[in-house]
């Protein structure tokens, strides 16, 4: 079981073998920030472009569809 904390940056990658809590296809490959953690899902803020504007969208995704982003690792 993966544990996520508020403020972490995660990559969204839908896993077809588990359909519960699957994000919409427009969020596949996006990067977001965790804002809420519940027992079965993780709330993520994602910036989505709609008609030339970037909107902060809040989505709920199950943990099997996300992973920690390596873009912020210091190496």
UniProtKB/TrEMBL annotation:
It comes from the Eukaryota. Pfam families: Ribosomal_L21e. Gene3D superfamilies: Ribosomal protein L21. GO terms for cellular component: organelle membrane; ribonucleoprotein complex; ribosome. The keyword Ribosomal protein applies. Keywords: Ribonucleoprotein, Ribosomal protein. One of its GO terms (molecular function) is structural constituent of ribosome. One of its GO terms (biological process) is translation. Belongs to the eukaryotic ribosomal protein eL21 family. This is 60S ribosomal protein L21.
């Amino acid at each position: 079981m993966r544990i996520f904390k508020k403020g972490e940056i995660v990559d969204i990658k839908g896993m077809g073998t588990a359909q519960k809590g699957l994000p919409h296809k427009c969020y596949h490959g996006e990067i977001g920030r965790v804002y809420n953690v519940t027992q079965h899902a993780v709330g993520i803020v994602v910036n989505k472009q709609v008609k030339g504007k970037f909107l902060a969208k809040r989505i709920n995704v199950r943990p099997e569809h996300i992973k920690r982003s390596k873009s912020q690792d210091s190496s």
